[in-house]
């Protein structure tokens, strides 16, 4: 039984790659220095995997920016604007990814987008109708040599040809990108021949597109591709992950590949269908250790399930992580201050390799003392989890009824009550929540965190910032104010830190894109709210003015998606727990006299499953969670939500079902096009389509915003419209924000005058 690692995080357990990259980008180090950091990281990561008994070591999982970009460069798919005519090198990559590099001309970066249903972002390859594919970068082959020189058996890992095409976009004249498949396959053949010449036996081709619903043409592309690649003088492991591929079982089982990898963490039920259809020599790699989450596995249960298969398949069964470990933090060992009861629940990338090793031992020699110890550890972990359930919370959830999910009256009744209370003008102006997080604010927080500032001083200083923020908004003449979120460093962490059942690591970073990493909170137990989280700040801000100041919360669905969530209960159940915690906060804000409360749900759409047929179920519970969080208030309390940039065409019914009194969205770049979905649906509630692109330092003019509001008014009745920026302003500075908001208010006044 071989242990199969699909890929290891590249960033380094202390984010060494991030810091080396940023240093290089700032011009403070040479390419050679960056390369030597990278090489050392690869060496360490291979060594860890080898130490855990992994024989075939992944090569090509490392990337200076993104593994899809590495492949594009290898295939010679570099947009002309980023190429300087010479050979591909690191700066070529950085120009594609960031629009600039220490050398070469600046040019707009390639588009970056989410990788399937993960929080990882890849650079979208740009293909032209006459696209050529030629091996243009030696990096992958050099890494193979590098691994071999260290005494390892290298297993190159790259995206398969069909998924590569699927993730690409076409540029120039419209054409069907599948027409490029034959040329692409020739290049893959050349790459595989090079690997074979290097002595490589196994190559892993990742085809996560198989987890999607694919039309006939794309299904056929798999037959065509693997029919051609079959002749490669080495063995191919076709890897699928992130979801079930059972809907493509007959297609997949008929492909002439030496091995298939299945993600049995997200879709354990698909195993049987594939086992039955395995070809005589074919290897089955079972992804049973979760590459998407941080929890230690129930190895005893996994071993029980796999035991018959292990007997049947013998060494044709490989034990594997469900997908690359890219999505998990690197090493639990560096977490020295984590509470032991939480630490005992966790396994990061390195620990997951150990789990593979332990699993193999459980299957091969279940009677040994060490195997028994593993089983005992798994059992006691499960028992502890079960005992940790909060009975009171369960009872509260059981007692929920339909009425708890709905406001007291329908929107029209609420609208009138709210209008009578707030008497807002036509086209009310507001902002999305945060104001500039200045260096001074960040400095305050870091000194407070280090214990250099006591609570009272910290609070007082932040109150001063809040006061200043309110005064500026009053001077600008904005109708509905915000307190500015100066006390928050992150919209999820701020709440996570105050909720019971949510924990934090110090080094649990995961790559989001390039050098950018996120450190998601860990939802490890039942979530409850021990005390008010935002009421003091909201009350303080409201005490400074007679104008309404919005209470500002992060919604349950977003907190869930941006965290590592436990797996012993369903995501739906966790969302319900979070929703109740937020609901209690909403009600507390209302009791404190806050009349308008915003519940941000920017990650709402991120949770959509890969397969459309699963969407309805997700949308049902996600909408329910939001409604539960919002519905505890009286008619005259106004609930807002904010969703950043999002497509609404295919989810508008669900968005309407959320029944927020006001929704704000990002629409300035699309020039209000995203409003079409609302228009077509006759969306009944109020909408604030963003008129100010906050991602750009440019200050939008009055005319530009007048024209955007007019465009919005062509789609949505004026009476339903608000005027606001696209998103929060925390990444901008006051020199930009103040004139931009002044123009926004002027644009609104101009339109009100004309009416
Ligand atoms: N209220 C948050 C802010 O303004 C919303 C951020 C977001 O949508 N991502 O910062
Ligand atoms: Zn936003």
Automatic annotation (TrEMBL):
<protein>
    <recommendedName>
        <fullName>5-methyltetrahydropteroyltriglutamate--homocysteine methyltransferase</fullName>
        <ecNumber>2.1.1.14</ecNumber>
    </recommendedName>
</protein>
<keyword id="KW-0486">Methionine biosynthesis</keyword>
<feature type="binding site">
    <location>
        <begin position="15"/>
        <end position="18"/>
    </location>
    <ligand>
        <name>5-methyltetrahydropteroyltri-L-glutamate</name>
    </ligand>
</feature>
<feature type="domain" description="Cobalamin-independent methionine synthase MetE N-terminal">
    <location>
        <begin position="4"/>
        <end position="311"/>
    </location>
</feature>
<feature type="binding site">
    <location>
        <position position="485"/>
    </location>
    <ligand>
        <name>L-methionine</name>
    </ligand>
</feature>
<dbReference type="InterPro" id="IPR002629">
    <property type="entry name" value="Met_Synth_C/arc"/>
</dbReference>
<comment type="pathway">
    <text>Amino-acid biosynthesis; L-methionine biosynthesis via de novo pathway; L-methionine from L-homocysteine (MetE route): step 1/1.</text>
</comment>
<keyword id="KW-0489">Methyltransferase</keyword>
<feature type="binding site">
    <location>
        <begin position="432"/>
        <end position="434"/>
    </location>
    <ligand>
        <name>L-methionine</name>
    </ligand>
</feature>
<feature type="binding site">
    <location>
        <begin position="432"/>
        <end position="434"/>
    </location>
    <ligand>
        <name>L-homocysteine</name>
    </ligand>
</feature>
<feature type="binding site">
    <location>
        <position position="600"/>
    </location>
    <ligand>
        <name>L-methionine</name>
    </ligand>
</feature>
<keyword id="KW-0677">Repeat</keyword>
<feature type="binding site">
    <location>
        <position position="485"/>
    </location>
    <ligand>
        <name>L-homocysteine</name>
    </ligand>
</feature>
<keyword id="KW-0808">Transferase</keyword>
<keyword id="KW-0028">Amino-acid biosynthesis</keyword>
<dbReference type="InterPro" id="IPR013215">
    <property type="entry name" value="Cbl-indep_Met_Synth_N"/>
</dbReference>
<feature type="binding site">
    <location>
        <position position="600"/>
    </location>
    <ligand>
        <name>L-homocysteine</name>
    </ligand>
</feature>
<keyword id="KW-0479">Metal-binding</keyword>
<feature type="binding site">
    <location>
        <position position="727"/>
    </location>
    <ligand>
        <name>Zn(2+)</name>
    </ligand>
</feature>
<feature type="binding site">
    <location>
        <position position="666"/>
    </location>
    <ligand>
        <name>Zn(2+)</name>
    </ligand>
</feature>
<dbReference type="Pfam" id="PF08267">
    <property type="entry name" value="Meth_synt_1"/>
</dbReference>
<comment type="function">
    <text>Catalyzes the transfer of a methyl group from 5-methyltetrahydrofolate to homocysteine resulting in methionine formation.</text>
</comment>
<feature type="binding site">
    <location>
        <position position="606"/>
    </location>
    <ligand>
        <name>5-methyltetrahydropteroyltri-L-glutamate</name>
    </ligand>
</feature>
<dbReference type="InterPro" id="IPR006276">
    <property type="entry name" value="Cobalamin-indep_Met_synthase"/>
</dbReference>
<feature type="binding site">
    <location>
        <position position="642"/>
    </location>
    <ligand>
        <name>Zn(2+)</name>
    </ligand>
</feature>
<feature type="domain" description="Cobalamin-independent methionine synthase MetE C-terminal/archaeal">
    <location>
        <begin position="427"/>
        <end position="749"/>
    </location>
</feature>
<feature type="binding site">
    <location>
        <position position="644"/>
    </location>
    <ligand>
        <name>Zn(2+)</name>
    </ligand>
</feature>
<feature type="binding site">
    <location>
        <position position="562"/>
    </location>
    <ligand>
        <name>5-methyltetrahydropteroyltri-L-glutamate</name>
    </ligand>
</feature>
<comment type="similarity">
    <text>Belongs to the vitamin-B12 independent methionine synthase family.</text>
</comment>
<dbReference type="InterPro" id="IPR038071">
    <property type="entry name" value="UROD/MetE-like_sf"/>
</dbReference>
<feature type="active site" description="Proton donor">
    <location>
        <position position="695"/>
    </location>
</feature>
<feature type="binding site">
    <location>
        <position position="114"/>
    </location>
    <ligand>
        <name>5-methyltetrahydropteroyltri-L-glutamate</name>
    </ligand>
</feature>
<keyword id="KW-0862">Zinc</keyword>
<dbReference type="Pfam" id="PF01717">
    <property type="entry name" value="Meth_synt_2"/>
</dbReference>
<feature type="binding site">
    <location>
        <begin position="516"/>
        <end position="517"/>
    </location>
    <ligand>
        <name>5-methyltetrahydropteroyltri-L-glutamate</name>
    </ligand>
</feature>
């Amino acid at each position: 039984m071989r242990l199969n690692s699909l890929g290891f995080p590249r960033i380094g357990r202390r984010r060494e790659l991030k810091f080396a990259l940023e240093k290089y980008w700032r011009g403070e180090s040479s390419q050679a220095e960056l390369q030597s950091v990278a090489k050392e990281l690869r060496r360490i990561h291979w060594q860890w995997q080898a130490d855990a008994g992994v024989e075939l070591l992944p090569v090509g999982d490392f990337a200076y920016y993104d593994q899809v970009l590495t492949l594009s460069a290898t295939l010679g798919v570099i947009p002309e604007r980023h190429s300087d005519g010479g050979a591909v090198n690191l700066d070529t990559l950085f120009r594609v990814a960031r629009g600039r590099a220490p050398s070469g001309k600046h040019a707009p970066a390639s588009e970056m987008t989410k990788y399937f249903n993960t929080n990882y972002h890849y650079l979208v390859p740009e293909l032209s109708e006459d696209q050529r594919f030629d091996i243009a970068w030696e990096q992958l082959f050099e890494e193979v040599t590098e691994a071999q020189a260290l005494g390892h058996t290298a297993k190159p890992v790259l995206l398969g040809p069909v998924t590569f095409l699927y993730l690409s976009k076409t540029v120039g004249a419209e054409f069907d990108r599948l027409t490029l498949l034959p040329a692409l396959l020739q290049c893959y053949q050349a790459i595989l021949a090079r690997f074979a010449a290097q002595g490589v036996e196994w190559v892993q081709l990742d085809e996560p597109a198989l987890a999607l619903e694919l039309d006939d043409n794309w299904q056929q592309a798999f037959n065509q591709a693997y029919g051609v690649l079959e002749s490669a003088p080495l063995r191919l492991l076709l890897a699928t992950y992130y979801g079930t591929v059972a809907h493509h079982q007959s297609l997949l089982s008929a492909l002439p590949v030496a091995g298939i990898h299945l993600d049995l963490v997200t879709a354990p039920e698909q195993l049987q269908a594939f086992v039955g259809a395995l070809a005589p020599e074919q290897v089955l790699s079972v992804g049973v250790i979760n590459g998407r989450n941080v929890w230690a596995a129930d190895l005893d249960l996994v071993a029980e399930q796999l035991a018959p298969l292990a007997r049947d398949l013998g060494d044709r069964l490989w034990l594997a992580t469900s997908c690359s470990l890219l999505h998990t933090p690197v090493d639990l060992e560096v977490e020295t201050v984590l509470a032991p009861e939480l630490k005992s629940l966790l396994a990061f990338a390195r620990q997951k390799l150990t789990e593979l090793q332990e699993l193999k031992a459980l299957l091969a020699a279940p009677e040994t003392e060490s195997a028994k110890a593993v089983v005992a550890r798994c059992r006691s972990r499960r028992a502890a989890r079960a005992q940790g359930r909060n009975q009171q919370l369960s009872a509260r959830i059981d007692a929920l009824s339909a009425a708890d999910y709905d406001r007291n009256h329908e929107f029209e009744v609420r609208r009138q009550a709210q209008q009578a209370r707030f008497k807002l003008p036509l086209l009310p102006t507001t902002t999305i929540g945060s104001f500039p997080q200045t260096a001074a604010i960040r400095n305050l927080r870091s000194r407070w965190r280090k214990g250099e500032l006591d609570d009272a001083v910290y609070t007082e200083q932040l109150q001063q910032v809040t006061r200043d923020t309110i005064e500026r908004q009053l001077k600008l003449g904005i109708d509905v104010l915000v307190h500015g979120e100066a006390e928050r460093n992150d919209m999820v962490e701020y709440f996570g830190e105050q909720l019971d059942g949510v924990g934090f690591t110090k080094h649990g970073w995961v790559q989001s894109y390039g050098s950018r990493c996120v450190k998601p909170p860990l939802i490890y137990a039942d979530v409850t709210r021990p005390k008010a989280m935002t009421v003091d700040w909201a009350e303080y801000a409201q005490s400074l003015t007679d104008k309404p100041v919005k209470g500002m919360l992060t919604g349950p669905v977003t907190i869930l998606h941006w965290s590592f969530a436990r797996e012993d209960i369903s995501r739906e159940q966790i969302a319900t727990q979070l929703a109740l915690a937020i609901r209690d906060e909403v009600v507390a804000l209302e009791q404190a006299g806050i009349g308008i409360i915003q519940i941000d749900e920017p990650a709402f759409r991120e949770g959509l499953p890969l397969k459309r047929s699963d969407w309805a179920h997700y949308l049902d519970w996600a909408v329910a969670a939001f409604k539960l969080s919002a519905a505890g208030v009286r008619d005259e309390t106004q609930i807002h939500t904010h969703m950043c940039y999002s497509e609404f065409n295919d989810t508008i019914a669900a968005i309407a079902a959320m029944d927020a009194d006001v929704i704000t969205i990002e629409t300035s770049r699309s020039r209000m096009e995203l409003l079409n979905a609302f228009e077509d649906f006759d969306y009944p509630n109020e909408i604030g389509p963003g008129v100010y692109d906050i991602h750009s330092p440019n200050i939008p003019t009055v005319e530009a915003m007048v024209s955007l509001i007019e465009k919005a008014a062509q789609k949505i009745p004026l009476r339903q419209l608000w005027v606001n920026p696209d998103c929060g302003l925390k990444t901008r500075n006051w020199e930009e924000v103040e004139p931009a908001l002044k123009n926004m208010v002027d644009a609104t006044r101009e339109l009100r005058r004309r009416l």
